[in-house]
Write a structure and sequence with these properties.
Structural class: alpha+beta
Helix content: 10-25%
Shape: elongated
CATH class: Mainly Beta
Strand order of the largest sheet: 3-2-5-6
Order of helices and strands: HHEEEEEEEHHEE
Number of domains: 1
Strand content: 35-45%
């Protein structure tokens, strides 16, 4: 029977962990919002809890990954309110990460989920609004 030496064991361990989304992509992500008009302000929430807000000038928000959709509600003077849903999708871990723990760690930590990273919102002018 062949014995493994320490370098081989370390190499196998690193290869096994390399495919795990918890390690390679983390459990949070940055969302970048491109808002028109730049005066727009959007509240960002998930499952009834507010995650933060973004504007045309402060347009980046870091959120924890998860399976639940994110809801955006945008307002700006002279424009109709805009509501948009960001749906998370699963991202695949490498085969070695799945073999390591069958993807359980990624599922528990939320790392297996990902939201769209760049979101563009163009609000519609309210024709009934007073100039």
């Amino acid at each position: 029977m062949k014995k493994f030496c320490l370098p081989q064991i370390l190499a196998l361990s690193v290869a096994a962990l390399a495919g795990c989304a918890s390690i390679t992509d983390g459990t949070s992500q940055s969302l970048i919002f491109n808002l028109t008009p730049s005066e727009a302000r959007c509240s960002v929430s998930r499952d009834g809890a507010e995650l933060g807000s973004v504007t045309g000038r402060q347009n980046t928000l870091s959120v924890s990954k998860g399976s639940k959709d994110i809801l955006l509600t945008c307002r700006a003077d002279g424009y109709l309110q805009h509501t948009q849903r960001l749906v998370s999708s699963t991202q695949t871990a490498g085969a070695t990460g799945v073999l390591l723990d069958f993807g359980i760690t990624d599922m528990v930590t939320g790392a297996m989920w990902k939201y769209p990273g760049d979101i563009s919102i163009v609000m519609v002018k309210d024709v009934k609004a007073k100039p």
